Amino acid sequence: MNASWIDIPTARGECFSGYLSLPPTGRGPGIVLIQEIWGVNEHIRALADQYALDGYVVLAPDLFWRLAPRVDLAYDEAGSARAFELFRAVDTAQAAADVADAVAALRGRPDVGGKVGTLGYCLGGQMAFRAAALAQADAAVCYYGGGIAGNLGLAPLVTMPILFHHAALDTLIPQDAVAAIKAAFADQGNAVFLDYPGVDHGFNCWGRPRYNQKAAALAHGLTLEFLSQHL
Which domains does the chain have, with CATH numbers? Predict the structure, then answer.
């Protein structure tokens, strides 16, 4: 893959890094792909490369750069303990602003031809939702976005097409939270909700025991269909 770490400037004059993966053609629409709590680890970099092979310029920003730059955690007991420690410490409002800055940085690149969307997983799903509102991204995709139900005051600002993936067995995002998200978008007409029966939170991640190959493949295909329509 044609991939490297690049610097991302912030609106506050700071700088942090992100993993950039380019498509084989070297040019395409943009995706800001946002990590889970384990950092921009092997799984997230592989996802960035996967979407780059699908023809997108993909930038995965480092959400935890103020706490532990470029942290790369495994899904074992020690890695998960550190991941949750970072999750408890991160300022999510600041992180959402950083993701919005990553959207702006991607839009300014000469190899991005077309629109820019946000796509995230778990914490990253929340960030995809919040940053889409802040940066007015052209589309957003939220895989089991933890914490979205607590930030629905932003829903009126999320006017771009948005796709939500939810797992029916997800206790971290219970069905009442999913219902609240659906209700917030009921009158806007820009949201698509895809629900996956019989699978749990994190079903897209092949490094976790809840991985479900069929649901992950289906969700990826439907995400590509959505992105092809809106980016």
Answer: 2-230 (3.40.50.1820)
